[in-house]
TrEMBL record, chains A, B:
The active site is at 154 (nucleophile), 320, 353. Residues 49-357 form the AB hydrolase-1 domain. Keywords: Acyltransferase, Amino-acid biosynthesis, Cytoplasm, Methionine biosynthesis, Transferase. Gene3D superfamilies: 1.10.1740.110, alpha/beta hydrolase. This is Homoserine O-acetyltransferase. Belongs to the AB hydrolase superfamily. MetX family. It comes from Methylocystis bryophila. Substrate binds at residues 224, 354. It catalyses: L-homoserine + acetyl-CoA = O-acetyl-L-homoserine + CoA.
Length: 386, 386
């Protein structure tokens, strides 16, 4: 798809010198700071057609085109490209790797100049707001005053909410998708299991595995397997796998992957460790756990959005049990109470949380419709000849 | 409570010699076979007041009284005792450790006489039906022809269903609670995560850890943590823990157990490895995965219960997402189709799957009412002077 939509990776980097540090919510300093990002489409003369896409937990800047590491389509390739809802003929799409990530933006695998070795756990624990602060530095650097839209799902949706709260005047439209205004107890619990799985692996070596030339692959794979279950729905698992056996007619009465679901999960674990850094997994899960937008506004989520002029489109999926519709409703209620403009769509889907990454006709139609209306309201020209 | 209800552990064992082997569904032989069990109350002269309690995944024979290893009340101590629903003044309660378990019944930690070392993974993979076959050997040994009742929750409920299907004439009444007629894809997935967590621990040593004098404690703790989340409900977690911090006013911006839910989960993992054998965990989870009662009857669950004279009481809990009410409804539909006598109660509770182990007034009233009516129908005398 990448080749078809012409969105080749452009491997962009911006380096902020020590004089322009990122000061974290935890009171630490990240400097120098590198932000890795991709862009698709072109910034127009008015600089009013920029859309920032925010990635989820294990996503990265490669939203469209072919991912240079996995060789697979970017995480939102189905949505981003010429004629697609995030239309690269009309919009300038920016997608960054979050701070703490592992695809080029400064994170725990980066070299700590103070010690000349990888940060490991010496990297500051970052928050969603820190991620957004870093993105704002990039947007400043690109000379963009106001983003036409900020969009993303899951942890990406948290960033969208944080953008709208921290920089309301810089966000014309916002699409928080399959997300929540705070991480629930159950969500923290699942993240903690994943972290403990990583840390239980002796190859993790208290976070210093890179220097030892090893990686906690088994622990990270277990973490991914547990998390992956939460991205799907019971119905989707039953439909796709049920109790079907893998390449055999009868059970083996062993601990082999008799069932297709076992084989599938093991593959998900193995594929993940090929592309993701274990320490980054700790940091991004922790950032989600700390997310509680209302807490920054005296416990009132409505205050976070008070008087906001941003147009919101909140989207949830019926079978998402990780960030269920009730979480999106809480966002919508707060936006209404804050007096913001908001449309809310719950998409019927049996695909669970992962639905926000998949082709779902109603989801696509909603995204396209919202962006077109907002673009027209903002006076962004349609692409010539299309 | 144990001391109060006088149900002290009696540490009973029955040893079946090699001439009385347990032949497993996988075609293997377990011989000699030891079954560890507890009894509470007394068998009456007519031998018609015996109730078999079947334990869940990580339960054991210590249903009532004080558990000799943990020092805590047995898993159903709230329900079992004089004047309690499983009234030890009226009924003779039997509770066995399942085959493959680790509290005295032959399992992977037992010595394999052929090699003079622990079985480890050489132990036969057992099924729910194998567990029930072993229990039937014990019931024969005790000279009991017909059980007044077989009851249990979760994996215990699977054993109840298997008893009713395999030995309908030996089961007067049956209480399958918070269970399912087959393990779903999602349930297999969670079990597979747990097994992979155990196997990822280098101290597991391909199952030969006992000989090496080590135990895969970290892997087993991770497995337990992941499983434990599935035993609770999102609502219960939110109510009990929410986003409350543990002994601190502000987050530490670290990977310490900042949140109470993290601290709680870590404790659950640590406590579990004190009392449970890692290989047994592999075997009991596998037994659940293989459970699909209808498959033994040409795909028809109704056929499993055709013409059954057993009285059934099926119980589910509203917030149980591991074995949701839809699973219980499938059992009820099959029982109805098979012409069996069945009552079905869905208990309103926010405590998730674990509700079947807790004091829930409606659950207790249902259990008491069902057992009393069935006991009266069977002509079991009330306890004298009560």
């Amino acid at each position: 798809m990448g080749a078809r939509n012409g969105a080749a990776s452009n491997g962009k980097r911006v380096h902020f010198p020590p004089e322009k540090p990122l000061v974290t919510d935890g009171g630490r300093v990240i400097a120098p700071l590198t932000i890795a990002y991709e862009t698709y489409g072109a910034l127009n003369e008015a600089k009013n057609n920029a859309i920032l896409l925010c990635h989820a937990l294990t996503g990265d800047q490669y939203a469209a085109g072919v991912h240079p590491v996995t060789g697979k389509p970017g995480w939102w390739d189905v949505l981003v490209g010429p004629g697609r809802p995030f239309d690269t003929n009309r919009f300038f799409i920016i997608s960054t790797n979050v701070v703490g990530g592992c695809m080029g933006t400064t994170g725990p695998a980066s070299i700590n100049l103070a010690t000349a070795r990888p940060f490991g756990l010496d990297f500051p624990v970052v928050t969603i707001r820190d991620m957004v602060r870093a993105q704002a530095m990039l947007i400043d650097h690109l000379g963009i005053e106001t983003l036409f839209c900020v969009a993303g799902g899951s942890m990406g949706g948290m960033q969208v909410l944080q953008w709208a709260a921290s920089y309301p005047e810089r966000v014309f439209a916002a699409m928080p998708i399959a997300t929540a205004p705070r991480h629930s107890s159950q969500n923290i619990a699942f993240h903690e299991v994943g972290r403990q799985a990583v840390m239980a692996d002796p190859d993790w070596r208290a976070g210093r595995y890179l220097e030892a030339g090893v990686r906690p692959e088994k622990g990270l794979a277990v973490a991914r397997m547990a998390a992956h279950i939460t991205y799907l729905s019971e119905q989707a698992l039953q439909r796709k796998f049920g109790r079907k056996l893998q390449d055999r007619a009868a059970p083996t009465f062993s601990f082999d992957a008799d069932f297709q679901i076992e084989s599938y999960l093991r593959y998900q674990g193995l594929a993940f460790v090929e592309r993701f850094d274990a320490n980054s997994y700790l940091f991004v899960t922790r950032a989600c756990d700390y997310f509680d937008l209302a807490a920054d506004y005296g416990g009132s989520l409505a205050l976070a959005f008070k008087g906001s002029k941003t147009r919101f489109c909140v989207i949830s999926f019926t079978s998402d049990w990780l960030y269920p519709t009730s979480d999106s409703r809480a966002i919508v209620h707060a936006l209404n109470a804050g007096g913001a403009s908001v449309s809310f769509v719950e998409i019927e889907s049996d695909k669970g949380h992962d639905a926000f990454l998949l082709y779902e006709p109603d989801f696509f139609a909603t995204t396209r419709g919202f962006l077109e209306a907002a673009a027209n309201a903002r006076g962004i020209a349609r692409a010539a000849g299309l």
